[in-house]
Every structure is written in structure tokens, then in C-alpha cells.
Specification:
InterPro entries: LysR_HTH_N, LysR_subst-bd, WH-like_DNA-bd_sf, WH_DNA-bd_sf. The chain has about 290 residues and is an alpha/beta fold. It has 10 helices and 11 strands. The two termini are about 50 Å apart.
Length: about 290
């Protein structure tokens, strides 16, 4: 159905005069009349009647007016949707996300991004940072969000820095640390080196772990129950009820854990990847 003709019929409904409507539509009166007669033949009904005062729409004519309005509204919506879809970003991104970042930050970022860019397909893999770094080197990921300092010579964005803390249920001094059971946890080599450095600078012996756990959350929960102490990043301590002491090195610099977005070579220039990086930086208030 020609929607332009439907618009002419609606204009006739507004004007009530075939002569005026034909003139506004740059049609002849006979062409407009023939168009209406064609519909009347197609639908087997009279759409309007003529008089000296103009035209009067029949009941069927009023129903056809409603139909014209609905069709034109649907056409407008369709054109807007097609135009919007043409402007939307598309593409695919494979993202590796560290376990702790996934549980505390990524769901909000994911929700915001997919609402804004529904046609960008994300494949998300969560794992330990060391594994993600290896996958990025082997071109299995487009972006890796890792905790810790990894050598990377392509695009690298610092997302967050958080302090490491001495964590216990009750206050401890450096002298009494080694008298309490130490709760260790899995971490990357860079953090392990920094922990060893801190003990060395304090002239303390790195304690053997009374417990060795797989996650920082498990360490926190054990200590919350009153067992021992540990060295934990602040990301897991927002609801911890106990003693927290931010750690510093001998030169006064804080003992920090950094979170980075590492981007595979060449991917940072893709518009959909740039949009995701902007979403990351907006979340962390870098932009």
C-alpha cells in the first residue's frame, strides 16, 4: 500500500474539500478522485459522499481514516528503528575478567554497556589474572582485565589501585605478627614478590602458612571468625569487621594492587572496542 496516498486521504479528512486537498498534494482532482474510487472498489464500500459543502466521510470512511493513521504511525516507527539500527555499533569482543573484578565490578559494567550497545556481542571469560594474561598473549582474548602488573607494550589502561592491608580480628604489631597463625592465599608472582619485599624491609621472616586458601574471600572469612591474620587487598574488605592496617614499604610508598585493562594489538581502534573501554573508564571515573 502506497503510504503517500494514505497521507493524501488523511489530508482530505482534515480539509473536507477535494479541490483544496488536490492542490496541496500537487494532484489533479480527477487523480485524487480516482484514487479514492480505487479503494472503494477494493473494499466494496463507500468511503465518502460529496455535497456542495464538501465531502462527508461515511462510517467505513472513518474506519479507513483510523487505518491510515495506524499504518503511517507504524511506518514512522519502522523508519526510525531502521535508521537507529544503522547508526548502532556492532561487532564482537572477547573479554577476560579476573575473578575478583568479576564478582565486584563487572556485572554493573556489563549491564550498562549492553543496554547502551545491544548489538555488540560480548563473550566474557572469568579466570585468574595469570591465565588471562597468557590467553591474551596467545590471541585468545581482545581485552583482559587483570589484577597485578603485567608487562604489556600495547594499549594498557590503569583502572584502579587499592591498598594491601594487614588484616586481623584484633590489633597486631610487627613484633607480634609471627606469633599468630598466618593465613595465605593464592596470588600472582608480582604480589608474592611485593609481600616478600615487605617482610624483608621489616626484617621479618616470611611465615609459613597455617592455612593456605584458594581465594581472598575465604581468607577474610576465616580471619573474621578470629583465626590468624593475612595480607589482603582492600577490594574484599568493605564489610570486614576487624583490624585493617594499610601497608607501606620502607621508602614510604604504599603497597598497592593495580587493576589494568590490557587490549590486544590493533583492537583499541575498533569503534565497538573503544565504546567498551569508555564504559570501563566511565565506571572508574577516569573520563
Amino acid at each position: 500500500m502506497d503510504t503517500k496516498k494514505l497521507a493524501y486521504f488523511l489530508r482530505l479528512h482534515e480539509n473536507g474539500n477535494i479541490t483544496h486537498t488536490a492542490k496541496e498534494a500537487f494532484l489533479t482532482q480527477s487523480a485524487l478522485t480516482k484514487m479514492i474510487q480505487g479503494w472503494e472498489e477494493e473494499f466494496h464500500c463507500k468511503l465518502l459522499t460529496r455535497s456542495r459543502k464538501g465531502v462527508r466521510f461515511t462510517r467505513e470512511g472513518e474506519l479507513f481514516v483510523t487505518l491510515c493513521q495506524q499504518v503511517l504511525a507504524l511506518e514512522k516507527t519502522f523508519r526510525e528503528d531502521v535508521s537507529s539500527a544503522a547508526d548502532e555499533l556492532t561487532g564482537s569482543i572477547t573479554i577476560g575478567v579476573s575473578l575478583n573484578y568479576m564478582s565486584r565490578h563487572f556485572p554493573t559494567i556489563l549491564r550498562r554497556f549492553t543496554q547502551t550497545y545491544p548489538r555488540v556481542h560480548l563473550t566474557v571469560i572469568d579466570s585468574h589474572s595469570e591465565k588471562l594474561y597468557s590467553d591474551l598473549l596467545n590471541h585468545k582474548l581482545d581485552i583482559a582485565i587483570v589484577r597485578g602488573d603485567y608487562k604489556w607494550f600495547d594499549t594498557k589502561i590503569l583502572l584502579d589501585s587499592e591498598p594491601f592491608c594487614l588484616v586481623s580480628c584484633h590489633p597486631l604489631t610487627e613484633e607480634t605478627l609471627c606469633q599468630e597463625p598466618y593465613v595465605g592465599h593464592r596470588t600472582d608472582m608480582d604480589t608474592k614478590f611485593s609481600i616478600d619485599r615487605w617482610f624483608f624491609e621489616k626484617k621479618l621472616t616470611v611465615p609459613d602458612a597455617a592455612l593456605w586458601l584458594g581465594s581472598i574471600d575465604a581468607c577474610r572469612d576465616v580471619i573474621q571468625e578470629g583465626f590468624g591474620w593475612s595480607i589482603l587487598p582492600k577490594i574484599c574488605l568493605t564489610e570486614f569487621q576487624g583490624n585493617l592496617a594499610p601497608m607501606t614499604f620502607q621508602d614510604g610508598t604504599p603497597f598497592l594492587r593495580h587493576t589494568y585493562a590490557l587490549i590486544s594489538h590493533g583492537e583499541s581502534t575498533a569503534p565497538h572496542v573503544q565504546a567498551f573501554l569508555e564504559a570501563l573508564m566511565t565506571y572508574h571515573k577516569i573520563l
